[in-house]
Amino acid sequence: MELMNFINGEWQKAEGAEFTAVLNPANGEELARVQLSKAADVDRAAAAAKAAQKHWAKVPAPKRASYLYEIGRLMKERKEQLAQVLTKEMGKVIEEGRGEVQEGIDMAFYMAGEGRRLFGETVPSELENKFAMSIRAPIGVVGLITPWNFPVAIATWKSFPAIVAGNTFLWKPATETPMMAYEMAKIFKEAGLPDGVANIVFGSGSEVGTAMIDHPDIRVISFTGSTDTGRKVAEACGRNLKKVSLEMGGKNAVIVMDDADLDLAVEGILWSAFGTAGQRCTACSRVIVHKAVKEELQSKLLERMETLTMGDGLDESVKIGPVINKQALEKIHSYIGIGQEEGARLAAGGKIMAEAPYDKGNYYAPTLFTDVTPDMRIAQEEIFGPVISMIEVGSFEEAVDVNNQVIYGLSSSIFTQDVNRVFAAQRDLDTGIVYVNAGTTGAEIHLPFGGTKGTGNGHRDSGVAALDVFTEWKSVYVDYSGKLQRAQIDNEI
Known about the structure:
This protein has helices spanning 39-56, 61-77, 79-90, 94-114, 153-164, 179-190, 205-214, 227-239, 262-274, 294-305, 326-342, 396-403, 419-428, 466-469, and strands at 2-3, 5-7, 10-12, 18-23, 30-36, 121-124, 130-138, 141-145, 168-172, 198-200, 218-224, 243-247, 252-256, 284-290, 345-348, 367-370, 387-393, 408-409, 411-415, 433-436, 452-453, 471-479. The protein is α/β, with parallel strands linked by helices. It folds into 2 domains: 2-248 and 456-476, Aldehyde Dehydrogenase, Chain A, domain 1; 252-436, 3-Layer(aba) Sandwich (Aldehyde Dehydrogenase, Chain A, domain 2). The chain has a 7-stranded mixed β-sheet with strand order 15-16-17-14-13-19-20, with helices on both faces. Helix 8 (227-239) links the parallel strand 11 (218-224) and strand 12 (243-247). Helix 1 crosses helix 7, helix 2 runs antiparallel to helix 4 (94-114) and helix 4 packs parallel to helix 5. The longest helix is centred in the first third of the chain and has 21 residues, at 94-114. The protein is globular and about 80 Å long. The N and C termini lie far apart (70 Å).
């Protein structure tokens, strides 16, 4: 199967028509071939989106929302098929694949509801016989650049609010996971979404992504990916005076205090650290544990790690799937040597699973480092794999301080029974997401998703906050006095 661009409601061959293989990370099987587009393909898609947006912006928002209801219905109808495709191309276990598709379904119905809201404000005017209000206005054509680890959920966080707000979009999926975009294009078509509202251009970040950022008709870039790449995106968008929303890396921590339910904490750590093989921006990669329970927590964690099953995510009994590719394996493994050189103790894992039945896929053993200090690279840098660093602390205040000593600020978690600590943690942990007695993953679509510091630039995906990315505020004044009234000049209060 060859995947072609979806532009103006049609499948189109890219300029030059070069293709690259889409591989199943569980076994190396070739699933499809996806074309690598050029700047000229972005030009065609942008022209189609620009032409369609003039009409789409005038469609009443509740009518725009009706398309999202239909998209959500089709996704729900095809949930299992979509989850199977997702697991094959990305590698995450099938229950996670189903959960990710459900997230897209939820986002469709949630954002469809916003079609009857899209609230602005009416306010009293300071002048007589004058009306004042603010409304949301669409921006125009928006560009979406999404990663391989959540090939459908993140795309829905971005595309659905863009649609309901009256924008059209170009979507560049990751070349590692283009099949979900292909499936979504079919759903957009079947749902009757007008031609040109949704456009998908496959290709590399350096070629397609750069062309999108530089294109004068694309007024917003919404990007999810690494902090290094996001910084370059922000710089380029800044030169072009282009609105940009960034959701980037994380170095998330689970804090376990001396009064914590340790069994519950272990469950939360395992799910947060090893779900999606650690390939989440919200994955737990640090465990900050009070010294009074450090040994007990470590013992329980090691015992449970031994029971984790690894393999092809389509196997319902498997709990950890492969990582995305060989480059990811090499990067993860490089941090094992770094950690040992820094003086951390490797308590479990730390190896590429090269023997049968893992030899055809990209598998990394669940890994635990202990005796880690907060300043070590393994405690500071995003590894993006199934690797935990355990850091011992002596107090709640020290735990918060260690949590905040990284350049990222996405997600944090605390396990404690002390309500005073709970409320202090909500206040003092400097992340965009805080969990209490739960792991660092599991965001719900009706709340803002994103982080502080090196994780983001102040915008949020998901929730009503996502509409701020894809709308501009417009202030409207209606003077029905029949005379010229000059605010502040003709009025003194």
